[in-house]
């Protein structure tokens, strides 16, 4: 069935409600090409976005979609979610469901559509979501829906990415921008050579992109971020006005100037607070010490809430409001921290960032309003300090894996510029395990283990420190991969330095550490931090292999051997080098003591798909090495 024909059928039904499913089947499964069913749990039959730009004050979206769910695993793609608020009202939401033959099953009633706050526990938000989750269990079925939205103020334009996720193919996807002034927006396409069709109709210019018959992607281990595959179109207004403040995207500095104007007058504190702030830092000897003191004051005084009401979605609340009320969102808390530093004459930059662990990096050649988060950059004389102002436990100057190593827009009173957040190196991101294990003749053992995690590996153990002792113990039982053990004692601590560290100390009884066979005892050298499996085999891999960060794990474990046994065999030294990482292990005997040393370096890489087998071979070699055992024999 031709895309245009499908589209006409869809529009006819959604606009008139008069089409009878008995007379004309809608999106029958038989019309899906076989190649689109391969590796697919769902097929997007038609996805259309229409953007109508009427002025710098008014923009309208129309969304039309039909998606066929092939099996139970595809149900996640059947959910309808439509966000809205007072500044972006939603209208004409219609949902219809068809069976495999394209016959009508149900027209969803408005009373069946959930409507709830999108902000969870937020005290200040008019963000809402309309949500519908079908209960269909007869597969395949097709869900068709559409809705419209109008924005009377906007600083960005939604782009186009035809794919929804893994195991979801695309039969037809289109994106249109309609405007009487083509110079009012700009665009850039990645991952495809699709050229837009451009037409002029009755004084309106229409830019039209379309993609069809895009096969489903399978999940592949060590794949690059999903958004880097397939066509991606980004758009932005060339000029805009928000809260009566004019802005443009001619340069990053011009965009930063708009943010700066938006924030003007919001960095004022009363005299009592100013006096208090100066008193707090009067004994500090360095600028960093001053920053740290005020940052910890912020953490202790305030809490994070999401604020998404009107202009609050773009503009921070005044610093004095945060001082008085002791809460704010990322914008308000970062602006408040900026104001505290201003009191003691330390300049800082309100910084726009995209917070995500896996994401496409910012294209510095395409200026647009981006980001979903605000942090603070403090450029000291010999160093730059980065502050995550929403986290009550984050160390001063340390960023997490959701904000490190990416391009951001740093804003001051006069504009701003692009900078890069810190890259944490291998020597920063370490995990060190040391300890003593006493092996008994029956295979049981007692162990004293200390684990220290630094840098980006710090978070797991640091998270433990925020739990009660009993909850800490439950999590350790759940996460520690030992056959059968009892925690006799545990202790969690952390050190909040620029490269923070967290420490876990354990005293354990382990029932089946060693295994007996006749007069021999088989003792694994590494049950505490082993690599247990290699990534799966992938035939005809499509995506390159990718690993974002560098880490280093080291282990030093001393074993005390049981009386009445002698060493029969001990593994030889093992060294493996590769483009993906390096591995080293060695066991040294000294009387009844054996010291096991292991070091694994995880390298960052971005390599073509044909190197995947090399990666697997390296990982398999590490798995084999980690299975090494020493063998004791009864005397």
Automatic annotation (TrEMBL):
Per UniProt, residues of the Transglutaminase-like domain are 278-387
InterPro entries recorded? DUF3857 (IPR024618), Papain-like_cys_pep_sf (IPR038765), Transglutaminase-like (IPR002931)
Per UniProt, residues of the DUF3857 domain are 60-217
- Cross-referenced SUPFAM superfamilies: Cysteine proteinases
Q: Which domain of life is it from?
A: Bacteria
Question: In this record, what's one Pfam family?
Answer: DUF3857
The protein in question is named: Transglutaminase superfamily protein
User: Which organism's genome codes for this protein?
Assistant: Marinifilum flexuosum
